[in-house]
Design a protein that fits this description.
The protein is an alpha+beta fold and about 240 residues long. The protein contains 3 helices and 7 strands, in the order αααβββββββ. Strands 1, 2, 3, 4, 5, 6 and 7 form a 7-stranded antiparallel beta sheet that branches. Helix 2 packs antiparallel against helix 3. The radius of gyration is 32 Å and the shape is elongated.
Length: about 240
């Protein structure tokens, strides 16, 4: 049997060991890191994915507006010009890949009939997952949007005939760079409308020595596939 003095020494030794254990902070940092690392990694990855998505949307907007502005500065477009427009759209996406980019470029006109409150498709070219609109297809809203076509064409007024606008629509498939965090893909879209600067219409395809004019009653629908695979529908 332990004597009282021995019991005191034993309790003191145990207390000292417990105190040392209680004050020992070794490994605490590693434990805290193990607990916080997944949260920090998820936050960092989420921020990176969000930033990449915002940058991609900005590039899509720039491509849409840039191509629309370029087309508006033409009075006529050859087939090769249209191919170059679609190629340039991909360059706008740098440093991202331009491969998932789809684009549709359309010239919408008003025929001057005061009883018509819609615009008509003069020509439309599209690449990727988008398809061209049919020649003379009617639009009461701006193609690809819910905005009324009267925002860009004075429809319903016979004196406002012989006018048109260029509409560019873009679609881009954004895939998360961190599939383990965000799987699947998101479609980014953009639309832009602008009036031609050099003529009332932008002629397509280009006919040497001619000036683009409103389609006549004898104008017929035509379809052509460009060298880059884009499809165009137009009246001639």
């Amino acid at each position: 049997m332990l004597k009282p003095a021995q019991c005191k020494l034993l309790l003191r030794a145990r207390g000292s060991a417990f105190e040392r254990f209680r004050r020992d902070r070794r490994g605490v940092s590693a434990l805290e890191f193990a607990l916080l690392a997944p949260i920090m990694l998820a936050m960092f990855t989420g921020l990176a994915v969000l930033t990449t998505g915002i940058m991609s949307q900005q590039r899509v907007n720039e491509a849409t507006e840039g191509i629309g502005d370029s087309v508006s500065q033409k009075s006529n477009l050859q087939q090769s010009d249209m191919v170059n427009m679609f190629t340039a759209a991909g360059y706008y996406m740098a440093p991202f890949s331009g491969t998932p980019m789809s684009m549709r470029i359309t010239n919408v006109y008003y025929d001057g009939n005061s009883s018509h409150n819609y615009g008509l498709v003069y020509w439309s070219c599209a690449t990727g997952t988008l398809s061209p609109y049919a020649y003379n297809q009617q639009f009461t809203t701006i193609p690809g949007t819910s905005g009324p076509v009267s925002w860009v064409l004075w429809v319903g007024n016979g004196a406002a005939g012989n006018s048109s606008f260029i509409q560019v629509e873009s679609s881009y498939i954004f895939t998360s760079p961190a599939s383990w965090f965000l799987s699947g893909s998101t479609t980014l879209t953009s639309q832009f409308a602008i009036q031609p600067r050099l003529s009332n219409y932008v002629g397509f395809p280009y006919v040497t020595g001619t000036t683009p004019t409103a389609p006549a009653s004898t104008t017929k629908s035509n379809t052509v596939t460009l060298s880059n695979g884009a499809v165009c529908k137009y009246g001639s």
